[in-house]
Amino acid sequence: MPRIALLPGDGIGPEVTEAAVTVLKALDETEGLGLTFERLPFGGAAVDATGEPFPEVTRKTVLEADAVLLGAIGGPKWDDLPREKRPETGLLALRKTLGLYANLRPARVVPGLEHLSPLRPEIARGVDLLIVRELTGGIYFGEPRGMSEAEAWNTMRYSRREVERVAEVAFQAAEKRRGRLVSVDKANVLEVGELWRKSVAEVARRHPTVEVNYQYVDAMAMHLVRRPGAFDVVLTGNLFGDILSDLASVLPGSLGLLPSASLGERTPVFEPVHGSAPDIAGKGVANPAAAILSAGMLLTYALDLPALGRRIERAVEAALREAPTADLGGSASTEAFTRAVLEHL
Ligand code: ATP
Asked: 219-234, pLDDT tens digit by residue?
């Protein structure tokens, strides 16, 4: 009986999470997955209810759950609170509690919706890649760091273990996808890049069916714009992944289309890339595609049901062509879009 902890959060978070749960329940009915759901306070909603953005009941339950499905957090209402009470602090605490060291962000151009991409349709067509970014190491966390009047310094540092564990996640993802992986580093200039490459090669030996290539990050930035359709899984460190995943995120053409997964030492978390969009909250017009696709990733990566994950992906894509929401130039409501997904499921 897989236990799913729901953290709907703020703004459009509850609306899009509800849509995702509707889809999971429909699938559960026909497939008999035995899913159970528990709704928990998190983010600004939790500050209002309990005074804390990540209350103890939520902490305890996510640690016991098989997966977390998160909506979105934050909004102007909570922006002026002291740092420890802010919704964003709750998100950092959640990530830390669960040891989430691998961030997975797919960027897929929906067949038939190539016109939404900023790239020419013939280049956008067929784009279907997954960026796996190391999330808890590298230059954002390396010591020593500091600043004086005259200079400032940060340290890029990775241990073999840190690289190997995120590489393992990326190789397993490649095995569930098209079996190709590109590892991105700067091994021609940085020692960290050399170690990165050696460590990835070590993990590659345990995954002989995955075809591996290596790219320097500067070349990769070019390739992602010129021929993004050539890639399957792209594995990289924290800093390069931050930049490349933002670059890749514009390829599908709307923020409302991007799901994500964060995997680590404990319960994995699935959430849309977009924020709480306070401007459209409560109006019933938010695009739930990213949240529903995040639920699809939950099936693939938390419950190891990639065929069902793909089924959700295909149903969402059919609904996007048939009943697009306002952010895609259509007029379907959140509810109408969700109904269209259910019909295609
Ligand atoms: P945050 O700082 O919370 O991450 P952000 O700067 O990424 O937020 P979002 O809240 O994601 O911003 O939204 C940016 C704008 O994009 C919103 O104001 C909204 O109009 C639009 N938007 C985001 N997500 C969706 C969605 N799922 N459906 C429709 N429109 C959306």
From this structure: 999 999 999 999 999 9
In this structure, the number of other CB atoms found within 10 A of the CB of residue 246 comes to 12
| Ligand 1 proximity of 277 Cβ (cutoff 6 Å) | yes
Residue with tokens 């966390």: 141
> For 2-41, how does the pLDDT look when each residue is reduced to its tens digit (9 = 90+)?
999 999 999 999 999 999 999 999 999 999 999 999 999 9
Residue nearest to atom 17 of ligand 1 (CA): 277
What confidence score (pLDDT) does residue 113 get?
94
185: annotated active-site residue? no
| C-beta of 260 in contact with ligand 1 (< 6 A) | no
* Neighbour-count burial for 139-159, b at 16+ CB within 10 Å, e otherwise: beebeeeeeeeeeeebebbbe
Ligand 1 in reach of 286 Cβ (< 6 A) = yes
Helix (H, G, I), strand (E, B) or coil at 94: helix
E strand map for the chain: 3-9, 36-39, 67-72, 100-108, 128-134, 146-147, 152-153, 180-185, 211-216, 233-236, 259-264, 269-272
Are 106 and 307 in contact, with CB atoms under 8 Å apart?
no
Distance CA 244, CA 261 (A): 16
pLDDT given at position 108? 97
For residue 202, the CA-to-ligand 1 centroid distance in Å is 40
Q: Active-site residue among 140, 214, 216, 232? A: 140
Fold classified for 1-104+254-345? Isopropylmalate Dehydrogenase (3.40.718)
Instruction: Name the burial class of residue 16, with classes exposed (0-12), middle (13-18) and buried (19+) by CB atoms within 10 angstroms of its CB.
Output: buried
3-state secondary structure 195-261: HHHHHHHHHHCCCCCCEEEEEEHHHHHHHHHHCHHHCCEEEECHHHHHHHHHHHHCCCCCHHHCEEE
Nearest CA to ligand 1 atom 7: 275
Residue 171 confidence (pLDDT): 98
Please state the domain extents for the chain: 1-104+254-345, 128-250
CATH architecture for the domain at 128-250: 3-Layer(aba) Sandwich (3.40)
Percent of the chain with pLDDT strictly greater than 90: 98
